[in-house]
Amino acid sequence: MKKSKRKNKFTFKDVVNSFSVIFIASILFWCFGDYTEASNVVSFAQVSDVHYSSTDLNTSYKLTAESGEVFKDVVLQINEYRPKLDFVMFTGDMVNKPLRKELKEFLTIAKDINSPWYVAFGNHDVCIGGALTKKLYFETVGEYNKNFKFRKSYYSFVPKKGFKVIVLDSIIDDHLTSNGKISETQMKWLDEELKKTKSSDVILVFLHVPVIEPFPSPSHKLLNGDELFEHLSRSSNPIGVFTGHYHMTKIIQKGNILFVNSPSLVSYPNAFRIVKVKNNKKEAVFDIRLKETRYKDVQRRAKMLTFGSGRYYGLEKDRNASYVIEKK
Fold first, then answer.
1. How far apart are CA 218 and CA 208, in angstroms?
2. Consecutive sets of 10 residues in the chain, 328 residues long: mean pLDDT of each?
3. So what's the pLDDT on residue 276?
4. pLDDT at residue 59, rounded to an integer
5. 3-state SS of the chain?
6. How far apart are CA 199 and CA 194, in angstroms?
7. Among 91, 158, 209, 306, which is most exposed with the fewest C-beta within 10 angstroms?
8. Residues 6 or more apart from 215 whose CB is under 8 A from it?
9. Which distant-in-sequence residues (6+ apart) come within 8 Å of 316 by Cβ?
């Protein structure tokens, strides 16, 4: 019996179809493979104390003349980051002087960020008795950031299922001071927000003035920090609290609350943070990384102007570390 011969013809159409499958698979991998975070992970950048200024002069320890260039570098680093961040949060002192012209120049740079971005109010952002009120400030932010729909200086939103963001206003606006305070109205609002949050959620709180001081400074502290800590402690959820103001890199864990203080862009170490938070069934994992400016000449000069630069740079556990908070 003769064996039948099987003819294997590989046509041009077969070649095209094979390449099409490979191309589509590559696109899917690019979009949804390596470049997509797990559904239980939220990633964000915290940028604090930009102190944007159009002036050509530096101060005693702030390189305000370079503030624009350093800020543009941060925007580029954020946009180059993969996978794309879920959001970016500015934790106060976006401008060095509370002038609407300066704010608009800051926002012109910020609007190029390719992730949703938000702001918490800082003491340099307010003009006591001047034209740039908190109301006008946030209206102006909304003009440049169509994603920003909030008109109050404190607000909340859900960046992804399993996470709750709460933004507080720690700035006193009825007299000139670098101290901060959370109003009684906000405290009551915070209590309601915490009550409405699911027990399985991770809570991310952002404000300018630290709840726990990274170092003692009576002229910069949150006057009712102990009270705010007590209100936050009423929640058993894993909580991350992200602040600026002291221009210092510091992380402190108190029970189920992680207090993360971040440095300034215009003073040493001229850095910001990238944070990934994983919401697991029994724990929350905070992976925190410090990202420094790529303008190393600016950073070197900033270091020379900073007394006790090591303190502001922090220990390795303050810069790059993972913290685990077990769920109760």
1. 16
2. 48 52 46 64 98 89 95 98 97 96 98 97 90 91 94 95 98 94 98 96 98 96 98 98 98 98 97 98 98 97 93 97 96
3. 98
4. 82
5. CCCCCCCCCCCHHHHHHHHHHHHHHHHHHHHHCCCCCCCCEEEEEEECCCCECCCCCCCCCCCHHHHHHHHHHHHHHHHHCCCCCCEEEEECCCECCCCHHHHHHHHHHHCCCCCCEEEECCHHHCCCCCCCCHHHHHHHHHHHCCCCCCCCCCEEECCCCCEEEEECCCECCCCCCCCECCCHHHHHHHHHHHHHCCCCCEEEEECCCCCCCCCCCCCCCECCHHHHHHHHHCCCCCEEEEECCCCCCEEEEECCEEEEECCCCCCCCCEEEEEEEEECCCEEEEEEEEEECCCHHHHHHHHHHCCCHHHHHCCHHHHCEEEEEECC
6. 10
7. 158
8. 246, 248, 250, 311
9. none
pTM across the whole model = 0.89
Query: Which pLDDT score, from 0 to 100, does residue 151 have?
Result: 86
3-class DSSP string for 89-131: EEECCCECCCCHHHHHHHHHHHCCCCCCEEEECCHHHCCCCCC
Q: CA-CA distance, 215 to 2, in Å (whole number)?
A: 92
Res 60: pLDDT? 80
The rounded distance, in Å, linking the Cα atoms of 81 and 7 is 51
Quick one: pLDDT at residue 139? Answer: 94
Q: How far is the C-alpha of 169 from the C-alpha of 165, rounded, in Å?
A: 14
Amino acid at 66: E
